[in-house]
Design a protein that fits this description.
Blueprint: H1 5-11, E1 20-22, H2 25-37, E2 45-46, H3 51-55, H4 59-71, E3 78-83, H5 85-90, E4 100-101, E5 104-110, H6 119-134, E6 142-149, H7 155-165, E7 171-175, H8 180-185, E8 189-194, H9 200-208, H10 220-234, H11 239-259, E9 265-270, H12 275-284, E10 288-294, H13 303-311, E11 316-318, H14 323-333, E12 337-340, H15 342-350, E13 355-357, H16 358-361, H17 369-383, H18 387-398
Helix pairs in contact: 1-6, 6-9, 10-11, 11-17, 12-13, 14-15
Length: about 400
Amino acid sequence: MCPAFGSLRILSRIEGSHPVMATDTGCLYGLTFVTHFYGARKSILAAHLRTSELMSGEIVESTRAAIDVAAKEPGCQLIPVVSLCVAETAGLPEEMLPRRIGDAEVVLVRVPAYAIHSHPEAKDVALAALLRRLGQPEGERDDKSLVLLGEVFPADPLIIDAVVRQMGVSGTITLPGRSIDDLRRAARAGALAPLHPFYKETTAVFRGWDMPVVGGAPVGASGSYAWLQAVGRLLKLDPALVNATAESERDKAQAILNAQPLSGRILVTGYEGTELAYARLLIEAGADVPYVSTSIGADPLVLPDEMWLKAHGTKEVIYRKSLEDDLAALDEYKPDLVLGTTPFASAAKERGIPALYFTNQLASRPFFLSGGMAATIAFIRQMLTKGAQYQWMQEFFEVDHA
């Protein structure tokens, strides 16, 4: 689907936010459909842009008219104007739009889908635009607080918050989220922890506020230990408390890995940006993961996980992957289980190989720290036992039953 869906997904969830799309009718229909499918539950307004309006140069006037309508929505505090391919190509000058109307801030979010490779990266563009405008770095800072950056399973931020508070963190803010106030006060936190490495623009905004950034993610035994230690160092927490918490969490994670060992070859592919972290957890649990691919681009924040994977048996890590890359890996490595996008999972099933759609079936489960990893490993372990069933189904449909 169009990558711009990622921007609308997070913008429509903010309480008091009423997005406006500057786009043509076809894009409006498609993006509104998928956004409501994922639970937007609010109107998405749009400029009335057809060929005649574009040819006559009415794009600004039409967009301003839609903004006026959005401002009248009850409780409106934020109007993100999502400027898509047509509007960007025609030219939508930011200075011609109001910065504020009534009680609502108006923020232009430029999302030309032809220049953005994946919907996770469109989330990054939208969140960075909001923070540049709404973030308030001036004022009293909470040097012991932590911003968690990433759209994750709802239980994960609660699990992480409970653990980091044990070592002295005063509180956490999870972005993207539902609160406009969180966007404002995030700029005064003590450190940023990108749980998803594709938030490059957003991370750059925080670096511009001189905020330290925690690398990696709290995944598995070794990853969780290293992440908690890094949080402790950057927030200057009590080393004794940090060590005790990190060691306890590592022991809990290792106990789960020992209790639910995996055996089998798995290909980890997708477009969520967390593929390397998932592969790391599966390898720690005992799986063979020779191939990992993702739609996001390479980034220094991902490099530690890539190096760890290659040191533990992963032969290929592919960024900006294509379906052809994944299919070639399917031929070469002959896996027992595939985690991937819809078309790749379908291709694996056609060969009698168990396969999961990464986004809906894995990203919809808790994952981080010991409190999240058990559900993920148990699910993967169960799927690794399905090989005979998939082979039977493949053979059944290959036989002519007429």
